[in-house]
Amino acid sequence: MPRSLAGVRGVGGAKQPRWCSKDLRSRGCRSRSRRPGAFGHPRRPSWVLLIGGSGSFGAGGTIICSVARRVQVRLHAMQPSVTTPSERRFARNAGLNLLGQGLPLLAALPAIPLLIRGAGLERFGILTIAWAVIGYLGLFDFGIGRALTYAVAERVGHGREDSAVHVVRSGLGLAFVISGSAGILLFLGAPWAASLLRPSAQLSREAAAAIRVIAVAIPVVVLAALFRGVLEGLHRFGVVNVVRVMMGVATFAAPLLVLPWSSHLALLIGALLLARLLGLFGYAWAVWRALPRSALSDPGGPAAPGAGALLRFGGWTTVSNLVSPLMVQFDRVVIGAVLGAAAVALYTTPFEIVNRLLVIPGSIVAAFFPMVAQDAGAGGDGRPSLFRASVHGILLLLLPPALILFAFADAGLDRWVGSAFAVEGVDVARWLLVGTTANAIAHVPFIFLQGIGRPDVTAKLHLIELPLYVAALLWTLPRFGISGAAAVWSGRATLDLVFLLVALGRVAPRLRIETARAALALGLGLAVLLLPLAFPSLIERLVLVTLVAVGCAAVGWRQFRGRDQLSV
């Protein structure tokens, strides 16, 4: 008998080949030469799972196992890399995130025109500000949400689930105190905050009442964001996106359900609060199910050290969490203060659609942040292939829909919300698409800097950018209107990307070449995005969009098929 088939007795008396791992012969044949999988756990090849999983093989299974091993060796010789569990998990998690953030867009398309007609232009403008504020209320967690994702991923990766539970408990307590205090301050200052929006006389009281509802929503949104961060650290992206889809759809559907009875702003935003509260319960239930019961029932534990670690990591993250959303959404507030709430609606309508493209980079970076954190915990300073794959994947997925919006912005806005919006919004949409492309790629160096433990770098860059952006916005708005505001926003996003790439190249030398490639990729992407300006005919633009979409699909298939893009 050949040596490879001379085995020992396994489960059920079946012989197992001697090249099987000794400690796992009872579970079936496996190679001793494979590398560990994610978090150091040994992984089983797909052919073992197909043959019999963890049960006994029997005599026939032993022969099949031996043949499969020989075939696998040949395949390794023919193919330099194979798909690993971490790759499959990354792709699955990114896909789930993309669906979870993209599906609510389907609800936005019919809902926005109905809300404009039902609530009126001024109310809709204030409602869009409420959407932005509620969407970014997570900034009141002082960086604890991102710190929880980082801490949970690191501890679970080292098998310290009980320690992760104590860190979660500390983070929730801190976040509740901080967000509750912020909510009380906003509730008391609601009349002053409403006056900044310059509402008409009949809407001034409604605006103040709406801001009080937003103040009540602060602890709800912050705690939901923290629970979501814990689930992402545990790689539970499935349940995260189930809840995210429901809350995203409710963002547009809840006000519509209230509209037949009342168009009062407090009631419209109160419906949003109810949807967020249900989302909080969903996230909390999922975390309770995912964490160890023994640690959950233990009132002791290293709570104070966990809190200190969260605050240290979250200190600089807080600055980014405060400044970055402010720069993304600050233009709405300034437009309302300078030009009025009606101008906010004209600006926000194309912004809401264009900004939804950021679900693509958001989905990808949320999936790989725990991987970068784990690599940093092991002493690494980044994964060049992961950085490269993320930039290329974002650009290839973003270009086709961005090009469609750029090419048909005038016709699309005219059919969607009317000619009045189209005249004012087409230039806004195209400027925002340029900035969104840069902002999408900027997600990658931003998350890498935070994942390798340098949130201070991103915070310092944002502190430099903020006064420049505010000054440019205040100078541009009275002279060029909402189109000028969109141009300034795009310039700020592009400058932010350049700063982040340069900073990451200095902090992580292994990624310096990849940051230069990312800058070149942005230049190529913007050149393609601006091509419709050279083709005035709708037919020519349709042909161009089709060619670019097919080209992106072909390049993506050729680049990512069968390659280990996530290796260190």
Provide the fold topology.
Elements: E1 7-9, E2 15-17, H1 46-51, H2 58-78, H3 85-119, H4 121-135, H5 144-157, H6 161-188, H7 190-195, H8 204-233, H9 237-258, H10 265-290, H11 293-296, H12 303-339, H13 341-355, H14 359-377, H15 384-407, H16 409-417, H17 419-451, H18 455-507, H19 512-529, H20 538-560
Q: Could you list some keywords that capture this structure?
A:
568 residues; mainly alpha; 2 strands; 77% helix; 1% strand; disordered C terminus
Order of helices and strands: EEHHHHHHHHHHHHHHHHHHHH
Low-confidence stretches: 1-85, 299-305, 563-568
Strand order of the largest sheet: 1-2
Count up the domains.
2
Question: Based on helices, strands and strand pairing, what is the structural class?
Answer: mainly alpha
Described by the principal axes of the CA atoms, the overall outline is globular
Give the amount of beta strand, in percent: under 5%
Average predicted confidence as pLDDT: 72
How much helix is in the residues?
over 70%
Quaternary structure state of the chains depicted? single chain
Biggest beta sheet attributes: 2 strands, antiparallel
Number of E-type strands: 2
Put simply, the count of helices is 20
How far is the N terminus from the C terminus?
41 Å
* Rg over alpha carbons: 26 Å
Explain the overall architecture.
- The chain is mainly alpha-helical and 568 residues long.
- It has two domains: 3-67, no CATH class; 85-560, no CATH class.
- The chain is 77% helix and 1% strand.
- The protein is built from 20 helices and two strands.
- It has helices at residues 46-51, 58-78, 85-119, 121-135, 144-157, 161-188, 190-195, 204-233, 237-258, 265-290, 293-296, 303-339, 341-355, 359-377, 384-407, 409-417, 419-451, 455-507, 512-529, 538-560; strands spanning 7-9, 15-17.
- Strands 1-2 form a two-stranded antiparallel sheet.
- Strand 1 (7-9) and strand 2 form a beta hairpin.
- Helix 5 (144-157) packs antiparallel against helix 6 (161-188).
- It starts with 6 loop residues before the first strand and ends in an 8-residue tail after the last helix.
- The model is unreliable at 1-85, 299-305 and 563-568 (pLDDT under 50).
